[in-house]
Amino acid sequence: MNLVVGATGMLGGEICRQLVAAGKPVRALVRSTSDPAKVQALRDLGAEIVEGDVRDRASLAAACAGATAVVWTASSMPFSYIPGENDVEAVDLDGAKTVIDAAVAAGAERIVYTSFTPDVEHPLRNAKRAVETHIKDSGLTYTVLRPSYFMEVWLSPAVGFDAANAKATIYGTGEQPVSWISFPDVAKFAVASLDNLAARNAVLPLGGPEALTPNQVVAIFERSCHKSFELQYVPVDALAAQQAAATDPMQQSFAGLMRGIAQGDAVDMTEMLKVFPFELTSVEQYAADVYA
After folding, report:
1. What value does the mean pLDDT of the chain take?
2. d(C-alpha 191, C-alpha 9), whole Å
3. In sequence order, which residues have a C-beta less than 8 Å from that of residue 10 and are 6 or more positions away?
4. Most buried among 130, 191, 247, 266, using CB within 10 Å?
């Protein structure tokens, strides 16, 4: 049995779909407050639904019972974030450790954990790295996935990339390459990691088929929509000042992630694709889908 934590999220839901398509049993951990439509969609897929909360160890016993593998995709950021209650410390740090400990106690064998490559220091990054260490010390066979920036998030209006209105906020000069990756591709790696020997006790940096600067990304979108984008550049110094002035861990983390784009996050996938021979989604394909 494969327990997916964060199953109602974008990545977690896609992993559930791909596991079912591969004929692998899926158990989806959901909260009592989870969107009923998303829970029903998981049920319609054929996933076993179990209610629990990563902040409550006792509630995880049923979720972990009989599970051989745990796939972690959950995060407090950004949609379920509640300061002091459902935040980076409670979910991304302590919650993840609680799930790992519960999985070990239940006799699980392995974990696939979703982290990320950008290494600018901020609360979410620090939580991810601490959990990675906890996993390595747990005795579980592990795979840590470190994808670069998701196209569907970081090339969307949520963070200032408004393709529909041909406007974009560019962090830094826009001249540093980033290996933008599509979340269904990350799901492919998560599912394949359960069986691929190369993923055993491994940290896998993941990116798309090519590293592109934000300015190159804008040019691709301009060609797709036949319009010139209106651009606003945010200097690195301004991002650093924003992070330093922020008092909330989510604000600090978003500023840190923006700084990561500004400094670049290129991932060479040449060797990885020899072991995981996937066809990865390009930014050009993603842009075409956006405008379609």
Report:
1. 97
2. 16
3. 152, 153, 183
4. 191
CA distances from 66 to 17, 53, 109, 232, 290 (A): 21, 18, 10, 52, 41
Handedness of CA 251, 252, 255, 256 (dihedral sign): negative
Residues 6+ apart with CB under 8 A from 181: 147, 148, 149, 150, 151, 206, 207, 208, 280, 281
Residues 6+ apart with CB under 8 A from 185: 206, 208, 278, 280, 281
Rounded CA separation 35/193 (Å): 28
> pLDDT category, 79, cuts 50, 70, 90?
confident
Token reading at 99? 């799930």
Signed CA dihedral, 151, 92, 56, 66: sign only: positive
> In which residue are the tokens 């490559």 written?
117
Q: Which residues contact 128 (CB under 8 A, 6 or more apart)?
A: 92, 115, 116
Instruction: Select from 248, 92, 258 the least CA-distant residue to 161.
Output: 258
